[in-house]
C-alpha cells in the first residue's frame, strides 16, 4: 500500500535522516521524503500500516523534535 503525507521538516539534512530512518522500519518497502514539497511517501504492508505510521512519526520527532506528519 502506498500513501502520501504532508511532512513539516525544517532542514534538508533532517529530511534525509528521517527518510533513511523510516526506510529502516520493519514492514516499510519504500520511503521518500521530498523536502521542497514537504511530502512523505511510504510504501508498506497494508496490515501493519497504522503501526508503521506511528513508528515513522516517532523516529521523525527523535531526529527533529518539531517535525510533523499529517494525512493529506
Shape: globular
Number of strands: 4
Q: What is the ordering of alpha helices and beta strands?
A: EHEEHE
Rg from alpha-carbon coordinates: 11 Å
Sheet of most strands: 4 strands, antiparallel
Mean pLDDT, to the nearest integer, reads 96
What can you tell me about this protein's structure?
The chain has helices spanning 12-23, 49-63, and strands at 2-8, 28-34, 39-44, 68-71. Helices cover 38% and strands 33% of the residues. The mean pLDDT is 96. The radius of gyration is 11 Å and the shape is globular. α1 runs antiparallel to α2 (49-63). β2 and β3 (39-44) form a beta hairpin. The protein has a four-stranded antiparallel sheet with strand order 2-3-1-4. It contains two helices and four strands. The protein is α+β, with helices and mostly antiparallel strands and 72 residues long. The protein has a single domain (2-71), classed as Alpha-Beta Plaits (2-Layer Sandwich), CATH 3.30.70.100.
Keywords:
4 strands, Alpha-Beta Plaits, alpha+beta, 72 residues, 38% helix, four-stranded antiparallel beta sheet
Amino acid at each position: 500500500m502506498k500513501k502520501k503525507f504532508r511532512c513539516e521538516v525544517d532542514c534538508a539534512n533532517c529530511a534525509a535522516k528521517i527518510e533513511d530512518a523510516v526506510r529502516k522500519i520493519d514492514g516499510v518497502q519504500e520511503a521518500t521524503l521530498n523536502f521542497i514539497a514537504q511530502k512523505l511517501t511510504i510504501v508498506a504492508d497494508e496490515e501493519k500500516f497504522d503501526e508503521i505510521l506511528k513508528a515513522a512519526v516517532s523516529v521523525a520527532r527523535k531526529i527533529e523534535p518539531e517535525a510533523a506528519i499529517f494525512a493529506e
